Fold this sequence. Notes:
Strand order of the largest sheet: 2-1-3-8-6-7
Number of strands: 8
CATH topology: Aminopeptidase
Helix content: 40-55%
Distance between the termini: 16 Å
Number of domains: 1
CATH superfamily: Zn-dependent exopeptidases
Mean pLDDT: 97
Strand content: 15-25%
Low-confidence stretches: none
Largest sheet: 6 strands, mixed
Radius of gyration: 17 Å
Structural class: alpha/beta
Number of helices: 7
Amino acid sequence: MITCEHGGNSIPPRYRTAFATAGRALASHEGFDDGALELARQFSRRLHAPLVYSTTSRLLIELNRSLGHRGALSRYSRRLPPRARAELAQRYYLPYRYAVESSVKSSHGRRVVHVSCHSFTPRLAGVVRNADIGLLFDPRRRGEAELCERWRAALNAREPKLRVRRNYPYRGWADGLTTDLRRRYGEGRYVGIELEVNQRFPKTDGSRWRSLRAALIASFAEALG
């Protein structure tokens, strides 16, 4: 199963008043994960895997956080009237989460391997992120740790100069979609990996970005065996 929680930066018309000053934020890493949806679609096509994605901006409601998380609503969505804020969960968050869980349930008891596609800004708060690729997982789940190690080795064999780091630039067991699914499904039913790609690839180099996408997918297929 492939998902992309931050595939676009659209704001539905009914909420745009609250986002009147959000143009720069929406176009940045705050608004969406540049390149993530393109990568997710290619993963889905090549592996014949179901794809669940959203093109609504994470600044409206954050699909990769728990509803009670302080980051679920942005500084812009908090400007909405209480009734409008309350409906965000019903219109966007819960339908997305239900679609993802339905995909897991449709496996009819077979183990689901989930790749959640993301990208990260090369620099955050003045700090340069020292990685090209991040593989995020829960180290307490043996299947996730072993799959990520095989994936890292297969990717480095194809792309030796890539800086591939595990649980960077975020922790794979922090609040998020994969963490929530781990609570619901044991290791025999669910393996969840967040793939993080440095945005310098989709932003600056079309040919390099194409070859990287191909390498990520081929190395993942090899790691799966």
